[in-house]
Amino acid sequence: MEGRLFTFLGSIGGHGQEWIILSHFVLVVGIVFLLARAATKRLQLVPNGSQNLMEAYIGGVISMGADTMGEANARRYLPLIGSLGIVIVVSNLMGVIPGFESPTANINFTLSLALIVFVYYNYVGIKTNGFINYFKHFMGPMPVLAPLMFPIEIISHISRIISLSFRLFGAIRGDDMFLMVLLMLVPWIVPLSGFFMLTAFGVLQAFIFMILTYVYIAGSVMMAEEDH
pTM, whole model, 2 decimals? Predict the structure, then answer.
């Protein structure tokens, strides 16, 4: 389609926006399953290869959460945050490869991820603290401030959806455009530095998304400790 960048998957099913997002996301899921399969196919007491890499990743995610909510809680929410992290990393890095497009360079995809986080941390907050106590926390430390604090808290929580989705979308979309311009201006050798830089940025954006998710979950399930 005119005005769209060439992608290998687009040449199969067309360059419509829905097909591009869906096909590249399916590819991302396939890569994640292959990585998980390679890491768990032959588990060893002394890990090596892909098992070592995956264990290092899991240990890093737990360490990240332990600083926010303690190791026990970090392990409890590891499946969600670890899964989000590896999906976002693979999605981000896919756009660095010519002929492919990052699913995270589309606002619909990043908005879906942000909504998953938003719904989940509110769900576990209500489940842990109870419906009344959870929303009572939104009203501030004194009843007289409730009419002011409650709308502010609601707006603050809704803004997290915008913050998570637009931060990731804007960063990856900007990276893809930068790489496209770089390849158009200097197609040989010089763009290699850009590839390394965008790879680092892709990993960094995944880290930011994960740490913010940990912070939001910690704030919803540890209200007593926060008040204390």
Answer: 0.89
